Amino acid sequence: MVALWEYPLSQALRILVLVSLSGGILDEEALLPAPQNISILSTNMKHFLTWSPVTVPGETVRYSVEFQGEYERDYANEIWIPISECSLIIVTQCNVTEDISATVPYNLRVRANLGSRGSKWSTLKVLFNRITTFLTPPVMEVSADGYHLLVKLEDLGPAFQFHIFYWRKGQERISSVVHLDTIEAGAEYCVKAQTYVEAINRSSNFSQTQCVHGSIWMTTALVSFVGFVVGVLALPFLAWKMSQIFQYSCCPVVVLPDTLVISFVMQRATAVEGPMQQKQTVLRIQGSMKVFRSQTVLPA
Q1: Which pLDDT band, with edges at 50, 70 and 90, does 176 fall under?
Q2: What is the DSSP string of 91-133?
Q3: If you compute the radius of gyration of the chain from its CA atoms, what whole number of angstroms results?
Q4: What does the pLDDT look like over 185-225, one tens digit per residue?
Q5: Confidence bin at 168 (pLDDT 50/70/90)
Q6: How far is CA 222 from CA 12, 110, 226, 231, in A?
Q7: Would the pLDDT of 56 be above 70?
Q8: In the Cβ-directed half-sphere of 244, how many Cα atoms lie within 13 Å?
Q9: Which residues are listed as membrane-spanning (predicted)?
Q10: CA distance 26 to 29
Q11: What percentage of the chain has pLDDT greater than the value 90?
């Protein structure tokens, strides 16, 4: 074996260059291709980092994701924080919703891993801020419940609120309320809604307008109920009234008018018939006579 220093200087330099090049080629072969087309999809405050897969025939490539917020970038020496849920995963997306916790610019990066081999980091081309999330109109179902409108909205989570607008069809003056007032039976009412997120102070577009008619059967039921109550309350009175009419028709009671009892003269007469005496009390009332039942008086 010939030592390198035994070669002439020019030949020794050529050997060193070849060795360094071969080492570089081996290092390049050890690296995996970096993930491409890295982007973030954000809808209704749910954020997903996605990328194109790295393909190695016959092998399963894994991926790791890290993020960097405004604080890490400006005050913590630009450190990157690994996302534990997205460490050595085999899928090409990562849910970073819990890590994007503030309305500030975030950077994210991903790299491929295969055993001891790894790729370079691929980073977002543009920083992501959750204020750019796409808000969809709420899925809504409207129905008439008696004299009220019933609006059902999908549950998007505690961060979401809804603005509900309703109006009577033909009266396009729209009102926004928390509680829907009583509606008129048989009238047609229209409703639309939008999603609102206070954390980013943004609203979605309006949902499609839905219109429903107020329930007519409630009016019929109410009228029937009122009629039933009135009938129940009036029945005793009608029975009493009929009994009074029947009693007057069969057994009338004669009541003298006040003009016939203003003054009267009482006279007493006594007649003797045999051993017994009868006393009759006779009332003379302004020319009219009324005789009471005679009372028997035994002789003294």
Answers
A1: very low
A2: SSEEE-TTT--SSS-BEEEEEEEETTEEB--EE-SS-B-GGGP
A3: 52
A4: 778 888 999 999 999 999 999 999 999 887 654 445 455 65
A5: confident
A6: 109, 67, 6, 14
A7: yes
A8: 6
A9: 216-239
A10: 5
A11: 45
Taking the mean position of all CA atoms in its chain, how far away is CA 241? 55
Report the candidate in 101, 115, 109, 100 with the shortest Cα–Cα distance to residue 82. Answer: 109
Tell me the per-residue pLDDT of 276-289, one tens digit each, with 9 for 90 and over: 444 444 444 344 43
Q: Give the position of tokens 């102070």.
A: 201
CA separation (Å) from 195 to 13, 102, 110, 244, 263? 71, 20, 32, 70, 93
3-state secondary structure of 190: strand
* CA dist list (Å): 50 to 32, 40, 124, 219, 293: 18, 6, 10, 57, 120
pTM for the whole structure: 0.60
Q: Which two tokens stand for residue 152?
A: 């059902």
In this structure, how many other beta carbons lie within 10 angstroms of the beta carbon of residue 269? 9
For residues 163 and 169, give the distance between their C-alpha atoms in angstroms, rounded to a whole number: 19
